[in-house]
Design brief:
With 108 residues, the protein is mostly helical. It has helices at residues 52-59, 63-77, 83-105; strands at 24-26, 31-32, 43-44, 48-50. Helix 2 (63-77) packs across helix 3 (83-105). It is globular and about 35 Å long.
Length: 108
Amino acid sequence: MSEVEMRMSEQPICDFCSAENPARVFHTPEFTMDKTPGLPESRSRGGWAACSACGTLIDAENWIGLQQRAVNRLSEKYSGIPRRILADTVKRSHDLFRLHYRKENRAS
């Protein structure tokens, strides 16, 4: 199993859309992310950082809007990745977040 470590020089980013300076953290239990062929297994540990725009979409449970925002922003950042592949990857990631976030916060 491999963990991705943030270098100290990197600016914190939103875990949903990669915007700089996330404003909030949404807590989830630790879980295994989807296994991508050819890449090491990754785990989600602790909270997911969110910019204010993504945080507002999460609060409203606007999951489609969250996915659209992320795909739009990430397609600018990663222009070499086909939008369809980016959208599929974002959807899987957000679906896993939503599943575990709901479980963690169901008793609240």
